[in-house]
Specification:
Helix content: 25-40%
Structural class: alpha+beta
Number of strands: 10
Radius of gyration: 22 Å
Number of helices: 11
Largest sheet: 10 strands, mixed
């Protein structure tokens, strides 16, 4: 496989450059074996690799970075740009909040990514990932392809993996979209290859899910998920507050306490005490304002009625 051009550094990242000693000297944020294996595999292909440890978003479309491709959206949309990059991106998806603790969903997770802008083909990308998955013992049980692409893409697997049609194999972030093929092992979707705009490649494999199916690591429970997510948000530079990321952090701190968890951090201690004070205030004021809306309570007194009522 050809050596692809090096892309510019992204913010909040550590870059490993092929052919230097820097990769050996860096301290991996994720010290797991899979992280090192993916880095080394990308180096053998001449692909620059970077880690992004912050969940800060790369644009204003989300509160937190929810996918490895987010920082590269301008490159997907620029028809003059060509290049390929691999990374591990810290991601946070609030939509998984109700599913944490089921063994496969986490609010915070790390995504192994591969992004090619008008350079790699879908077939080359499939070969790349089957080779890597074979090396780490994560060979998929089957893959899925959208019916619109199944005739074109099934031959790219060359009979190595069973193929199933799936109407859900389309992806979009609202401005960039494409068909995809998804990889499954032990009944778990471990990753997918998206073909944005029909000319680019956007790959995402969940590191924690790969660790689960490859190394048999035990599923993470809800409390551990909450604790890890809170730590990652704090490490990314956010403080509890009443708006946006700060509000999310405050809600997660409170949820951790409600579920019986603990965290050795001043933010957690402060939030527990704050909730006690708000509950006392609410108990005093509620008889005087029986008809006020939840919005009024929040705007006037900073009291989230739905949260307080879950503790009474």
């Amino acid at each position: 496989m050809a050596i692809w051009p090096i892309l510019p550094d992204a913010g909040n990242s550590t870059t490993f450059r092929t052919g230097t000693t820097q990769a050996k000297e860096v301290a991996y944020v994720l010290a797991g074996r899979l992280t090192h294996q993916y880095l080394e595999f990308c180096k053998t292909k001449g692909i620059e690799f970077e880690t992004v440890n912050s969940v800060r978003p790369h644009d204003e479309t989300t509160l937190f970075c929810s996918a490895g491709m987010q920082q590269f959206k301008p490159l997907f949309s620029d028809p003059s740009h060509m290049g390929t990059l691999a990374n591990i991106q810290a991601c946070l998806r609030l939509g998984d909040l109700d599913e944490i603790g089921d063994g496969t969903h986490s609010l915070y997770f790390d995504m192994l990514g591969l992004f090619s802008f008008r350079q790699m083909t879908v077939g080359e990308t499939i070969d790349f990932w089957l080779e890597f998955l074979g090396q780490i013992g994560g060979w998929p049980d089957y893959v899925t392809i959208h019916p619109d692409r199944i005739d074109d893409w099934t031959p790219l697997y060359r009979g190595r993996v069973p193929v199933r049609p799936d109407l859900e194999c389309r992806w979009s972030d609202g401005s960039i979209s494409g068909y995809c093929t998804e990889f499954y092992k032990d009944g778990i979707e471990i990753g997918n290859i998206v073909n944005p705009l029909g000319t680019c490649i956007d790959v995402g494999f969940g590191l924690e899910r790969l660790d689960l199916v490859v190394n048999g690591s035990p599923p993470v429970d809800a409390l551990t998920t909450l604790r890890t997510t809170v730590k990652k948000i704090i490490e990314s530079g956010y403080c509890p507050g009443n708006k946006e990321q700060g509000y999310v952090l405050r809600k997660l701190l409170r949820l951790l306490a409600v579920k019986g968890g603990t965290l050795d951090h001043p933010f957690f201690v402060d939030e527990v005490e704050r909730q006690k004070r708000l509950l006392r205030r609410y108990d005093v004021l509620k008889p005087k304002h029986p008809d006020k809306t939840p919005e009024w309570w929040f705007d006037t007194h900073g009291i989230d009625v739905s949260e307080l009522e879950t503790t009474t």
